[in-house]
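Researcher: Hi, I'm a grad student and pretty new to this. My advisor asked me to get structures for two proteins we've been looking at. I'm not sure of the right format, so I'll just paste the first sequence and hope you can take it from there.
Model: That works fine. Here's the first sequence with its structure tokens right after it:
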Amino acid sequence: MGVFLALVNSFLDLLFWPLRAADPIYGLAGISFLTGLAMVIVFRFTSNQKAIRRSKDRIQAHLLEVRLF
């Protein structure tokens, strides 16, 4: 476990090395953006896209129904 943690620590040190002179908020924003992008890609390939589309269409139909009546 110690070897794994050392490897992760080295990887993160290398990842944050270009940002060491900048304000920490820029590094945090960049890493947050990349993490969010990765999660969107993972969610896209692990979710049922047809069911999501069907639910979105039903919600849109209900909103149109409320607006018409």
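Researcher: Oh nice, that was easy. Here's the second one.
Model: And its structure:
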Amino acid sequence: DPVWWLYITWLPLYLYKTHGFSLQQIGMFAWLPFVAADAGSLGGGWLSGFLIARGWSVDRARKSVIIGGMLCMCTGMLAARAGSAAAALAFIAVVLFGFQSWINNVQTLPSDYFPEQAVGSVTGMGGVAAGIGAMLSIQATGFVVDHWHSYNLILWAAGLLPLAATAVLFILGGPIRRLPFENRS
């Protein structure tokens, strides 16, 4: 979630400070990456379902889409070096497309791993962790921009974070399959 909240929270100020956008230009163009996010949201869920319907295992289908989304999110590092506002917005659009395709598949994992009675609790714990991460990253972004007067370090960090998150997800999660669950009511 820190990647998503970075752009939701800081994109207008980034466009103003880094690319000299006026308020009118922000209103005219800052929404474009979020249309790409909409496409990623729909496309990521559709693609994994399509692959599963074609005989791919849930593990292979979800992990393939997650890897594709991760690679898209890494293009955020290119936004730090973009020579124009249009290029930066295009890279950010790819990031947000990738994020939404990535997160749709990640948020489906609790229902892949756990039985119905545990999905809500597992999802809730993930939501709390995501919220805490988002709050910390928003504060860190403000600190870095105030002290280094640049978004470059933040864009690089946000481009590398998906690599780390996906690696941790795959290492800790292992193969995507239903885990044994003992109901202790």
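Researcher: Is there anything I should tell my advisor about the second?
Model: You could mention this: The chain has a mean pLDDT of 94.
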